[in-house]
Amino acid sequence: MPAVSKGDGMRGLAVFISDIRNCKSKEAEIKRINKELANIRSKFKGDKALDGYSKKKYVCKLLFIFLLGHDIDFGHMEAVNLLSSNKYTEKQIGYLFISVLVNSNSELIRLINNAIKNDLSSRNPTFMCLALHCIANVGSREMAEAFASEIPRILVAGDTMDSVKQSAALCLLRLYKTSPDLVLMGEWTSRVVHLLNDQHMGVVTAAISLITCLSQKNPDEFKTCVSLAVSRLSRIVSSASTDLQDYTYYFVPAPWLSCKLLRLLQCYPPPEDGAVKGRLVECLETILNKAQEPPKSKKVQHSNAKNAILFEAISLIIHYDSEPNLLVRACNQLGQFLQHRETNLRYLALESMCTLASSEFSHEAVKTHIETVINALKTERDVSVRQRAADLLYAMCDRSNAKQIVAEMLSYLETADYSIREEMVLKVAILAEKYAVDYSWYVDTILNLIRIAGDYVSEEVWYRVIQIVINRDDVQGYAAKTVFEALQAPACHENMVKVGGYILGEFGNLIAGDPRSSPLVQFNLLHSKFHLCSVPTRALLLSAYIKFINLFPETKATIQEVLRCDSQIRNSDVELQQRAVEYLKLSSIASTDVLATVLEEMPPFPERESSILAKLKKKKGPGAVSVTELEDSKREGGELNGGSDRGPDTAAMAASNASTPSPSADLLGIRSAAPVGAAPTSAGSLLVDVFSEAGPAAPSAAVNDDGFLRDLEQPTETSDSLLVEGSGDSDSAPPSEDPAPPLSEADELLNKFVCKNNGVLFENQLLQIGIKSEYRQNLGRMYLFYGNKTSVQFASFTTTVSCPGELQSHIFFCALMFHHVC
User: Fold this and answer.
1) Can you say whether the dihedral through the CA atoms of 413, 417, 422, 428 is positive or negative?
2) 5: pLDDT confidence band, cut at 50, 70 and 90?
């Protein structure tokens, strides 16, 4: 770039900046800025034409004011006018102002594009570079449309100067990232690739950034770059630090270019050409050898540059995964970094070894560093390094060291950072299941996991242990005995109670022969935890109690007394109340054979991929998994075990399936409810606020009724029933295929609603009336559907809803009326 002479200095700008810096308060600064803005505005609007120097000075002042955080709403045209100047300093200030202040949607873009075209065609390298920098800085789609076809021509032209080629390559990269559909290389592809052979290292460095980005999107078009990249890398690696003096950084030749070349090669598989592959292997061996050499400088810059190349080389070795010798050497080199005093090196070494551990060639070499990794897990101060150490232990685990690694991870869990505990729990659960030869060890591990980190044990973990216990007869008795002992602890986590209630309800009979774990002792132990648990756990325990009545008839009276108490059959929670009433009735009226059939032991679950493993696969990166993501994957992966990951409570306790659907069942296609305690703000919004995801105001009668029917299935053509039934609910009655019942059977239709919430309420030769309802605690919602069974349309069809007599004072009533006549 041309030098700026003393005559080009702007004294007025220097004085203004000095005045701003000397202001004692914000008010004084604003006052001085407003004064200067008024002066600049008057100069721009004055009758006297300003020369290039004055325009440049005032535009610089506006730019400085903008950088101080003040809005600038004028001066843009003057900056555009500076682009037509033949002086470098004036053109430079004009492009700078436009790059910073002009919006990509500005009306001046067309004028700016014309000025840029003139500079690109001027063949003046300084002006061309300024224009290319402006295009890259603005990067708008309009500029991409205008110059995407011109810049590749400049880049590969034989008479283009090296500095312009560098700017053109980086400008084209910017446009490709913002508008990839407009940057079509086509005929320029091979010529752009051959820039890797350019004699100027700066051109090669800029071009390789462009080629790497293009190769990631279109690898086949740019595959010829592999041999050229290997050739260039070989020349750099084999050169001495004195050969590339202008590009040697602290005795390391061209470190940035070397890293970019290695990264480009990671976009492709190993070279098929034997000569190219041999040359590349030789380069990688040279890089590993240089890592072993004593440092040529004690400066941190030297070690950083050297290690940057080394880690990129190791990444390439891991990517190819085809050279056992290189993989083992890379593992050994990384092992030396595990005890390095620099934290960043230890982190990178652990991260790279995680990937190496998955290779069959280097897995055994990685395992030799297990003690070092365990020590890092225990002693590292940085939580991110400890997390990488945990990831590496997980990756290097196999049958030979599973018990040691699981024990160490369990030990670390007691003091682990809260941010990584849930992921640690998942990994321990996966390893315990994957490498369990003795399933009694697996049961012990999971129960210990719940004891240590119960708050972080997700549903998938205790669902899974129950599935495995049910599927394996040889471990059921041991599981019952172990969980019984675990429940005797004074402080017992709720997840332990869930596992205990389920396993004892299914297999408590296997340990009932011991007087210390007799049926009544088991029941009393479980019931002692009842009052400390949440509603879902209490519901599970109630199901375990009814199972006890089937397994141990001698406990029937005691359990019926518990079910009969007011705290159960009059419980404010409708789920607990329903279970208590139904179980009490079932145990009272059902014969022994019927009870044994209804409450028979759970059948084995189908063998499918563990939902815990599926949950861990949701991670975005190695070890980088947030609690939010885990919760999302928990919801998404709920049925990966062939439906077995629905709660074991709902899957196993057959008694609860024998009656009405759970109040938590989503009968109307609604996925969440507002908190029960949230008081309604108005009568019209009571039910909407409780049952809707967002609490909208009460809908008006003008709302299209299709909005309320979008969650419902339309009746098929083959169905005789005109009632539109709810979708997605297993307990909903299917559309009737029987002829319409006579009017005398209307009472029988009504009686069916004692046990179900949906169905046909009334039907005759003219009309069919169906009902769809949902209840949550003291709130309810009903839809009535009217089906026209005749061939003519009903005229003046109206409905009324009334709340008769005594019910008026007991029921808070809200009616939303929508007609839907089929």
Assistant:
1) negative
2) very low
Integer Cα distance of 673 and 695 in angstroms:
10
Strand partners, 773: 782
Strand partners, 726: 712
Provide the mean pLDDT of the chain: 80
Nearest to 133 by CA among 107, 102, 96: 96
Q: Which residues are annotated as a binding site?
A: 11-12, 43, 53, 57-61
- Cβ within 8 Å of residue 114, ≥6 positions away: none
Return d(Cα 310, Cα 287) in angstroms, integer.
6
Structure tokens at 161: 């100067």
Helices within 665-705 (DSSP H only): 686-691
Which residues are CB-contacts of 766 (< 8 A; sequence separation ≥ 6)?
788, 789, 790
This prediction's pTM: 0.66
Find all residues with CB under 8 Å of 525, minimum gap 6, and list them: 484, 487, 488
The pair of three-digit structure tokens given for residue 210, joined into one six-digit string: 């462009």
Among positive and negative, which fits the CA dihedral 583, 584, 587, 589? negative
> What are the tens digits of pLDDT across the range 523-563?
999 999 999 899 999 999 999 999 999 999 999 999 999 99
**Kind plus residue range of the DSSP H or E element containing 216:** helix 201-217
**Between the CA of residue 93 and those of 64, 124, 264, 744, what are the distances in Å?**
12, 17, 37, 94
- Which residue, chain included where needed, has tokens 């299709």? 706
The per-residue pLDDT for range 350-387, each reduced to its tens digit, is 999 999 898 888 889 999 999 999 999 988 888 899 99
**Residue owning tokens 């055994």:** 364
472-489: pLDDT as tens digits: 888 999 999 999 999 998
Contact 98, 79 (CB under 8 A): yes
Residue reference for tokens 């600049």: 40
Q: Residue 445: CB partners within 8 Å, gap ≥ 6? A: 406, 410, 428, 432, 436
Angle subtended at Cα 775 by Cα 770 and Cα 779, rounded to the nearest 5 degrees: 120
